[in-house]
Each structure stands twice: as structure tokens, then as C-alpha cells.
Hints:
The protein is 25% helix and 33% strand. It is an alpha+beta fold. A 4-stranded antiparallel sheet has the order 1-4-3-2. It has a single domain (8-113), classed as Thiol Ester Dehydrase, Chain A (Roll), CATH 3.10.129.10. Pfam families: 4HBT_2. This is Putative thioesterase. GO terms for molecular function: fatty acyl-CoA hydrolase activity. It comes from Candidatus Jettenia caeni.
Amino acid sequence: MGIVYYANFLVYFEMGRTEFLRNLGLPYSELEREHIYFPVTEAHCRFRVPAHYDDILIIQTFVSELKHATVEFKHKIIREGDNKLIAEGFTKLACLNASRKPTAMPEKLKKLLQ
């Protein structure tokens, strides 16, 4: 159909989260070395207009909610050039320890996300 497959937008959200944390100086690989894991527990995406192949897309990601053991990221996908909002949504992640059990978010991480 010449448009971007809908499931790719969840991948774009993940790319946004990954780069967001990297820009804070805390890549996912460092969290995993410290045995802190952040699985997605909920995801939502609302599609506004189609993205076409070869469109350049901008991923905007920010923290919208920070709790004791969870964090919610908001995401917007914008098409470069006409600045059209292509899609928007959120992902919620839970903080797990080395045993993969829910745990309080490390203070270091919480401060960075605030």
C-alpha cells in the first residue's frame, strides 16, 4: 500500500525510549549490567495520518509519569518537512530486579527521569 506498517510504530517508540535514556547518559546496557530491567507493561498508539516509505520521521519522547516502580513515556512521531503528526501514544514500563520481580526504581535513575 506504500505506507509504513502499523506495528513499526511500537518499534519507533522503543527507539525513542532507548535514545532518550542514552541522551541522559544511561543506556539500557548499563541498566542491564546493574540487573535492572524495564519490560513494557502497556502500549498504546493512535494513528493520525499515514507515513509513507522514504518519509523522514522524527521521534519525540518524554517522561509523562514517574512512580515508585513504573515510568510512562509519551511518544509523538512527526513527519519532517510538513511537521504532520503521524502517530502518538505511550508506553508504560515496570522496574524489575535481577530476579525479574517488581522493585523500586533506583534513585539514580529516578533523578535522571525527573
